[in-house]
Amino acid sequence: MATSTNEYPAKGYAATSPDSGLAPFSFTRRGLRHDDVLIDISHCGICHSDLHSARNDWGRSTYPVVPGHEIVGTVAAVGEGVTRHQIGDRVAIGCMVDSCMECRHCDADLEQYCQNGGMTGTYNGTDRRDGSPTYGGYSDRIVCREEFVLKVPAGLPMAEAAPLLCAGITTYSPLRTWKVGPGSKVAVAGLGGLGHMGVKLAAAMGAEVTVLSRSESKRADAEKLGAHAFLNTTDRVAMKAKTGYFDLVLNTIPVRHDVTPYLHLLRIDGVQVLVGVIDMLPEMHSGLLLGRKVLTGSGIGGLAQTQEMLDFCAEHGVLPEIETIPIQDVNHAYDRMEASDVKYRFVIDMASLG
């Protein structure tokens, strides 16, 4: 498998330590392997995972970190063996850039759960073939194995398409896995970057959608986003009235919290899916699960399902609510994101790299 010796100079923004913030960073992308695609990045969404990785909140960052796994752009060059993409195609990369493609999970289109060393992350990962670090989409270009490059449908604007590569698929995947459709009763807990996509997607699938929030100020936004109802979780009477009502609770809350109240809302065989919190949960009385209620989690989707999601969003006009920023404002955007001062996703316009 030949590799081009023509490496590609790249520029972007990187964190060099937990407290460095993000600053301009020059580096090199590998030359094209036979199955690689070179992409000129037009936009990259900002995910809360980017902030956590840049600041080493999870204790596993390897510096320098070039964040970004909500990437869209245009194909600039292809390796000699590439068949899926052509120069000029509108394309996207999500949270992974490789997997073994041979294990039982990869064969089942679940590359995100690869059994041989896990998926290779778009950033802060290690290339499976040469051991080099992976750098993400806060940059002007990226090289990626062709199977992990997705098509951006013509109906999707590039800037709005970017957050779909993480926030979109993270909420789409559990809705599809648990067969949400017309007649389903879905509750979305939390109304942030993930939650607002959960509302839009579930509504587009034909479900009856209720937003769960302790903040009454979210009621108007919930309605604008397509929710059919709003349930204030601090209202005990209202919460009790919905006991056993929902088929699925999509829990997008990103911080440690008690999941018990949401289990009470589920019918028999109802499912609460955690997609936001990555932390230890408070103790829960296991008797709740004896009512045949399911508490589970979900990551992103596989490649086929992510392409399906992009096509679904194009067909149904499902777009995230975004605020576009120049890359020079990324540190301020992190501070605003941490303060929940964004409705609902930041997207970096890479033309600002100059």
What structural keywords apply?
354 residues, alpha/beta, Quinone Oxidoreductase, Chain A, domain 1, 2 domains, 10 helices
Can you put this structure into words, describing what you see?
There is one protein chain. The protein folds into two domains: 8-165 and 321-353, Quinone Oxidoreductase, Chain A, domain 1; 167-297, NAD(P)-binding Rossmann-like Domain (Rossmann fold, 3-Layer(aba) Sandwich), CATH 3.40.50.720. The protein has ten helices and 17 strands. The chain has helices at 48-54, 104-107, 158-161, 167-177, 193-204, 219-224, 236-241, 260-264, 303-316, 330-338; strands at 8-15, 22-29, 36-45, 71-78, 90-93, 96-98, 120-121, 141-145, 150-151, 185-189, 208-213, 229-232, 246-251, 266-274, 294-297, 322-326, 345-349. Strands 3, 4, 5, 8, 9, 16 and 17 form a seven-stranded mixed beta sheet that branches. A six-stranded parallel beta sheet has the order 12-11-10-13-14-15. Strands 1-2 form a two-stranded antiparallel ribbon. Helix 4 crosses helix 5 (193-204) and helix 4 packs across helix 9. The model has no long low-confidence stretch (mean pLDDT 95).
